[in-house]
Amino acid sequence: MADTHAAFFNRGVAGSQAYARKFGNMAPGEVPGDEAWRWLSRGLKEALLAFIGNAHGGRYALRAALYEFHYGPVLEAFATARDGGTDVKIVYDDRRTGSKDDPSEKNRAAIAEAGIGDLVVPRTATPSYISHNKFVVLLEDGEPREVWTGSTNVTAGGIFGHSNVGHLVRDPAVAAKYLSYWEALAADPEAADLRPTVEAQTPVPEEAPEAGKTTVLFSPRSSLQALEWYAERMDAAGSAVFLTAAFGISEPIERVLEEDKDYLRYVLLEKEDEDMEVLSRDPDNRFAVGGTYGDTPLGRLLAERLTGLNTNVLYVHTKYALVDPLGDDPLVITGSANFSEPSTKNNDENMLVIRGDARVAEVYLGEFMRLFNHFFARDLVRRQLDPSYSGRTHLSPDDSWREAHYRDGPQQKERLYFAG
Question: Of 3.30.70.20, 3.30.870.10, 1.10.10.10, 3.40.50.20, which CATH number belongs to 5-389+399-419?
Answer without folding.
Answer: 3.30.870.10
